[in-house]
């Protein structure tokens, strides 16, 4: 790695050091899993204070290029993304594998999946959910299932699924283990055959809750997919809010052009 060029004092030294390290990562000089020099070594190498070197590393962490491991140092992050397949995610041929969409996606990429059911509760829905599910926003009209998803024990997404209380009450939809085919199997038994979906995708900064659950480094945004399932009558019967780590997740859609 070369010394950072002076820019006439216009660019802080921390940013110049970060640029040198960033270029080394992008060129492959520093490879995924490589350990960065310590703050003391960086400070000596670039003739800077240790807090300047620390700031440079922080900038790279905010970009998702490096990750700190307690007691070990700072390492170049592995370029791994768990892709969310949109077009065939809910296809019957995939449901017949016996795996949920997330477990199937993880298996396709050689990852070990884990899903923690955190809570199942009757609630008043957020307004955007009430509008899409066509339920009363000022009543306890939904069941909210919150799940946390892990790939190779690393948290990658938070999913909040909302169902009509009038349909879920007293059924396996209120249980952590909802039976064969998961919640979609139970919803199909209630007369809702999924025939189309609508996904609305946003990029935004995370809430404090999402930051804590996903273990997000500072400055890393999330991808939100607001998913609505529509049945054979065109009626919405399930809405889920998927919140993905943007540095560990990509979205893949293949759709027919009509």
Task: Describe the 3D structure.
The chain has 258 residues and is of the alpha+beta class. The protein contains 9 helices and 10 strands. It has helices at 13-27, 39-46, 50-62, 92-95, 101-108, 127-133, 165-168, 182-189, 208-214, and strands at residues 66-69, 73-76, 82-85, 113-123, 142-151, 154-164, 196-204, 222-230, 236-245, 249-252. The termini are far apart. 27% of the residues are buried.
Secondary structure layout plus pairing:
Blueprint: H1 13-27, H2 39-46, H3 50-62, E1 66-69, E2 73-76, E3 82-85, H4 92-95, H5 101-108, E4 113-123, H6 127-133, E5 142-151, E6 154-164, H7 165-168, H8 182-189, E7 196-204, H9 208-214, E8 222-230, E9 236-245, E10 249-252
Parallel strand pairs: 3-10
Antiparallel strand pairs: 1-2, 4-5, 5-6, 6-9, 7-8, 8-9
Helix pairs in contact: 1-3, 2-3
How far is it from the N-terminal to the C-terminal residue, by CA?
A: 51 Å
- What is the radius of gyration? 23 Å
Average pLDDT rating: 89
Strand content: 25-35%
What are the defining features of this structure?
6-stranded antiparallel sheet; elongated; alpha+beta; single chain; 258 residues
Short synopsis of the structure:
It contains nine helices and ten strands. It has 258 residues and is an alpha+beta fold.
């Amino acid at each position: 790695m070369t010394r950072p060029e002076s820019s006439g004092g216009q660019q802080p030294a921390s940013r110049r050091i970060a640029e040198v390290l960033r270029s080394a990562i992008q060129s492959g000089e520093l490879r995924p899993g490589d350990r960065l020099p310590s703050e003391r070594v960086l400070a000596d190498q670039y003739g800077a204070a240790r807090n300047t070197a620390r700031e440079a590393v922080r900038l790279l962490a905010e970009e998702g290029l490096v990750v700190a491991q307690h007691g070990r140092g700072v390492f170049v992050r592995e370029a791994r993304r768990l892709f969310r397949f949109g077009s065939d995610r809910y296809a019957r041929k995939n449901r017949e594998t016996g795996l949920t969409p997330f477990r199937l996606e993880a298996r396709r990429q050689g990852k070990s999946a884990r899903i923690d059911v955190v809570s199942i509760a009757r609630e008043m829905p957020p307004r955007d959910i009430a509008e899409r599910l066509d339920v009363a926003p000022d009543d306890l009209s939904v069941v909210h299932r919150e799940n946390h998803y892990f790939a190779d024990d690393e948290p990658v997404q938070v999913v909040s699924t909302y169902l009509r209380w009038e349909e879920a009450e007293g059924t396996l939809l209120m249980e952590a283990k909802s039976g064969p085919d998961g919640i979609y199997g139970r919803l199909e038994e209630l007369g809702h055959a999924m025939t189309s979906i609508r996904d609305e995708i946003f990029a935004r900064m995370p809430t404090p809750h999402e930051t804590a659950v996903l273990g997000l480094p500072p400055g890393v945004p999330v991808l939100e997919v607001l998913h609505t399932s529509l049945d054979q009558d065109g009626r919405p019967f399930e809405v889920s809010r998927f919140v993905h780590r943007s540095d560990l997740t990509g979205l893949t859609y293949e759709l027919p052009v009509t």
